Amino acid sequence: MLTASSEGDLETMKDLASRQPALVRCEYNYTPPIHFAVREGHAPVVSWLIEQGVDLSYRSYSFKDALLQMVREREYHDILQILETHGGSSRPRQDGTAAGCRQRRRLAR
User: Fold this and answer.
1) Residue 29 burial (10 A CB sphere; 0-12, 13-18, 19+)
2) Calculated CA dihedral for residues 83, 51, 16, 23, nearest 10 degrees
3) Phi, psi at residue 66, to the nearest 5°?
4) pLDDT below 70 — which residues of the chain?
5) What's the confidence (pLDDT) of residue 100?
6) Which listed residue, of 22, 65, 99, 101, carries a Cα 20 to 30 Å from 109's Cα?
7) ∠ CA 20-5-27, rounded to 5°
8) By residue range, what is the domain housing residue 64?
9) Alpha carbons 16 and 19: distance in angstroms, whole number
10) What pLDDT score was predicted for residue 3?
11) 42-72: buried (b, 16+ CB within 10 Å) or exposed (e) per residue?
């Protein structure tokens, strides 16, 4: 899922999610597919992941960068519009944790 999101391979992502829906929330080093799709500028993948209900409050693990910050710096105007339309935030997280950490704790219960 992570490789497919980074490469913009939406068909593979849909196939994987049809067999294991939780994969849209998988992580590598606290980094979910939405990060890879945004970083590489894959607007259709970003839209699809949002439709699947991914967490748009995600912030990068090491730098706490928001998705909106990333698209503004990379000038991905189409993805910026998608994220803003769906409530993406550029404000710092209030709990001080990366989204993946919070989800991992929730899954461990």
Assistant:
1) exposed
2) 70
3) -80, 155
4) 61-65, 88-109
5) 41
6) 65
7) 60
8) 2-108
9) 5
10) 96
11) bbebbbbbbebebebbbbbbeeeebbbbbbe
The two tokens of residue 41 are: 């500028």
What is the structure's pLDDT at 64? 63
Q: Give the largest CA-CA distance in the chain.
A: 39
- Residue 86, φ and ψ in degrees, nearest 5: -100, 15
> Which CATH number do you get for residue 49?
1.25.40.20
Among candidate residues 17, 25, 60, 67, the one with its CA nearest the CA of residue 43: 67
Nearest residue to 84 via CA among 69, 99, 73, 98: 69
Separation of alpha carbons 64 and 25, rounded Å? 18
For residue 15, the model assigns a pLDDT of 98
Sequence length of the chain is 109
Looking at the structure of the chain, the number of domains it has is 1
